[in-house]
Specification:
Layout: E1 2-8, E2 21-29, E3 34-41, E4 54-61, H1 62-65, E5 78-87, E6 93-107, H2 111-114, E7 133-142, E8 166-175, H3 177-180
Antiparallel strand pairs: 1-8, 2-7, 3-4, 3-5, 5-6, 6-7, 6-8
């Protein structure tokens, strides 16, 4: 079992742009493609787009969590996560839990594959090639999507993520087939 604590000290420089997320990424073997979690679901949701999702226990594959937008982009996030299991088909994998709710996603594509920078060469989701990994984002907090009046508008002030001191903690615990079914943390 490993407890991870991430701390960011912004310092005195307040002239930085907003952060999109404060968290970590983790690549697991592609065979660990089953997510069982307690939080908001089953559809993707974000801090400013989670009122039509409900807290409950859900189980999905990484393929089911990916939404094939016309142009590949960030997607699949889940908010208010109390615990998350990422396992293979026999129940072996990792359990994630934290003292405060997290935002987590698990997809068969990396962030770089979904957003290839200024060039935007990946124009259609169906042309993406799976990279062979389960790509997880384990975030303490994430900025809202915005788009209140049209695509491209900024989130409301309460959903922005200012460049500031931040900290969060989560614990990872290995699980085996026999104990994943009884996980209740």
């Amino acid at each position: 079992t490993i407890t991870v604590k991430q701390r960011f000290v912004a310092g005195d420089n307040a002239d930085k742009p907003y952060m999109f997320r404060f968290g970590m990424r983790l690549q697991l073997p592609g065979s660990m493609n089953i997510s069982t979690y307690y939080g908001r679901g089953p559809l993707e949701n974000y801090s400013d787009r989670n009122h039509t999702t409900f807290v409950g226990k859900y189980k999905q594959t990484t393929d089911e969590q990916f939404y094939s937008y016309i142009r590949p982009q960030e997607n699949g996030n889940k908010t208010d996560i109390r615990w998350w299991l990422q396992t293979d088909n026999i129940g072996t994998g990792l359990a994630f839990f934290a003292p405060a709710a997290l935002s987590i996603s698990a997809l068969p594509y990396s962030q770089e594959e979904l957003t290839d920078g200024i060039e935007k060469g990946q124009r259609h989701s169906e042309f993406l090639q799976k990279n062979g990994f389960t790509n997880m984002n384990i975030d303490g907090v994430q900025m809202g999507l915005g788009c209140v009046t049209s695509w491209g508008t900024w989130p409301l002030p309460q959903y922005l993520l200012p460049y500031a001191d931040r900290e969060y903690t989560f614990t990872m615990r290995p699980i085996k087939q026999q104990n994943s079914a009884s996980f209740n943390k």
